[in-house]
Amino acid sequence: METTAEEAIDTRDRGMLEDLMNQKQALQIEIGNIEKQITKQATGQADTTMPSTKAAVKARVRPNAANKCIDLVVSTTEGIIRGVSITGELLFNGSESAFYYSEGTPSDSLACPIKTEKDVATELKVSAIVGLSMADNFQVHDITFTLPKFAMYLPVREIPQRPQGSVTGKLTDRVSRFQLWVSNSFSVPPSEVLNNYQASFVSVRDGSSITVTANNGDFSIYCDDMDVAGAMVQDLANFLGVTELSSTCDYPKEFETFNATLQRVEEYNTFRMKLTAEMADSTQLVKAFVIKAEDARILQDMKTMKKMYSSLYEVNRELMGEYLKRSNNHSELLAALKDVNSMIQKAANLRVGNAKTSVVNDCRAAIKAKNNAQLFKIIRTGSV
Fold first, then answer.
1. Residue 205 burial by CB count (10 A; 0-12/13-18/19+): exposed, middle or buried?
2. Rounded Cα distance, 292 and 298, in Å
3. Contacts of 233 (CB under 8 A, 6+ apart)
4. DSSP-H helix ranges across the chain
5. How far is CA 283 from the centre of its chain?
6. What string of pLDDT tens digits covers the 384 residues of the chain?
7. Which residue from 27, 149, 203, 286 has the fewest beta carbons nearer than 10 Å?
8. What is the Cα–Cα distance from 236 to 218, expressed in whole angstroms?
């Protein structure tokens, strides 16, 4: 055993030594290349295999509706791009970075497809490998690029039909500031400042439409998804530095679904109470059958005892079936209540500050009072 352990240690040491020798050789080669570059610079010679020091790397976002994603297009002012490494949170499944390379002939730009499941603003670290077409040596250019929160929305001139859902609030700042928010958050170039502003977008994820408008001190976001609209309201308030914001909204499709959810909750609660009462009655029967069976056993009345235990078996089987029904009902009730809480959070995210807190508290009070009419009014207007 001692010999085997010593051999294992010796093998490990030799492996570590070999790795260190390989690292040493790689570093020596790198040092040699650097010394050559320094010598050429000192003597005024130019390295024809390397781009000039004036070479620059830039990045921009380009929607890719065909692949339901966005392309981060990295380009250089001189030479070609061999590959690009992108590091950023919440972008790549199971990893914080990804490497892209050209499948064909390398050019001065490289499109890196990125698909985000959620709308998040992320700072990307971009490392581009730049060189000349026949070069042996390359430069690595590092830049940072902020991916706009709503980069997954393609700007369009017009949409076939405006979404039915909408949220409207007071704009406490100038329309130009609203336009600047659209430019920064949707990755669109600044446009001429107008008193009546409107912009439309199409999601490259699912093709849904969005229209944002600002005029006469009001802003509106037309979008059929309350989650998306809420994220936009929160982002707008954060950009403008607004701490208090009330709004009114109307989402016919989501309200219809929510009404059906409330009805399911009521049905599940009614069924739960009914099951509880039935199980209580069955429990009393179980107690009675156990007592009668025990009395029959003491009196050595085997016929009656068998009859009582047979009845007890049937009641117990019914209880197990009722328990399974109650368990399924409980799971469905929890799922429905989760949807109710989700709707309350959606409605709250359409407001900022005290208005947001009031919506949550008032909605819960309306649910407790079983006042669905008041609940829908709170969600629509933000007040009781």
1. middle
2. 10
3. 167, 169, 221, 245, 247, 349, 350, 351, 352
4. 2-42, 175-186, 226-240, 252-298, 302-348, 354-368, 372-381
5. 48
6. 455 667 777 788 888 888 888 888 878 876 776 677 667 666 665 555 566 666 789 998 888 888 888 899 999 988 888 899 998 876 777 677 889 888 778 888 999 998 888 888 888 999 998 887 766 678 888 899 988 899 889 888 888 788 999 999 998 888 888 999 999 898 787 776 667 888 999 998 888 899 999 987 899 999 999 999 999 999 999 999 999 999 999 999 999 999 999 999 988 888 888 877 777 777 788 888 788 888 888 888 888 888 888 887 887 787 787 788 888 888 898 999 999 999 999 999 999 999 999 999 999 999 989 899 999 999 999 887
7. 27
8. 13
Tokens of 346: 């959606």
Please give the model's pTM, rounded to 2 decimal places: 0.73
